[in-house]
Amino acid sequence: MKIAVTGGSGKLGRTVVAVLRQAGHDVVNLDVAGTRGPGFVRVDLTNYGETIDALFGENDPSAGPDQAATPAFDALVHLAAFPAPGIVSDVATFHNNMLSTFNVFQAARRAGIRNIVYASSETVLGLPFDVPPPYVPVDEEYPPAPRACTRW
Length: 152
Prior knowledge:
Layout: E1 2-6, H1 11-22, E2 26-31, E3 40-42, H2 48-56, E4 75-78, H3 90-111, E5 115-118, H4 146-150
Parallel strand pairs: 1-2, 1-4, 2-3, 4-5
Helix pairs in contact: 2-3
């Protein structure tokens, strides 16, 4: 299968890309950061034009306004996001993660990509990487971090 992985340069993304390639898949990493070369496309997923161009790949967009004649990718794994609170402001985290997720899913629909995996880390629960929760198990009373609101 030809699989697009957004956020393939991140912690989880690097592992997903490696495992999929080891399984024999043709994997393209779509990320704002990464090493230039085969299997990598630099794309700002908050920019819808860049996102749709990346997911259409080598397809001719004139095949139709809502779907390519043949999808460039058989599947998509969406991992791209700011991975934890505090990297940028809460507003920037929300803006980046919500807009990029909308753009990726909308572009995938238009590109005819029907097999989609959407995944996140433990920060979806509002847990930062570097600070343990005050109690375990975490329940509904634990206040979520801004990132958690962008990964549901």
